[in-house]
Amino acid sequence: MFDRLTDRLDNVFRNLHGQGKITEKALDESLREIRRALLEADVNFKVAKAFLARVREAAVGQQVMRSLTPGQQV
């Protein structure tokens, strides 16, 4: 179960890796994939929803630091 979750999260961050900034569209797609991965790993829905809300709040409108890629910053 954890191997699959790790693989799915790695794929999300790999997709964000090459982008210059975190766009709303990229964030939506990434959060959707993370939500699916968490729910498939039997994470409680309320916990997953709260986690994703905090990630969205922290990520929206953030400039990517020069030394980091979007995947690393999220």
From TrEMBL:
Q: What are the subcellular locations of this protein?
A: Cytoplasm
Q: Which InterPro entries match?
A: Signal_recog_particl_SRP54_hlx (IPR013822), SRP/SRP_N (IPR036225), SRP54 (IPR022941), SRP54_N_sf (IPR042101)
Q: Name one GO cellular component term.
A: signal recognition particle
For this UniProt entry, the molecular function terms from Gene Ontology, in alphabetical order, are:
GTP binding; GTPase activity
SUPFAM superfamilies per the record? Domain of the SRP/SRP receptor G-proteins
Specify the Signal recognition particle SRP54 helical bundle domain's residue ranges: 1-74
Biological process (GO) annotations held by this record are: SRP-dependent cotranslational protein targeting to membrane
User: Which Pfam families does the record associate with it?
Assistant: SRP54_N (PF02881)
Q: What is this protein called?
A: Signal recognition particle SRP54 helical bundle domain-containing protein
This chain's source organism reads marine metagenome
Q: What is the lineage of its organism?
A: unclassified sequences, metagenomes, ecological metagenomes
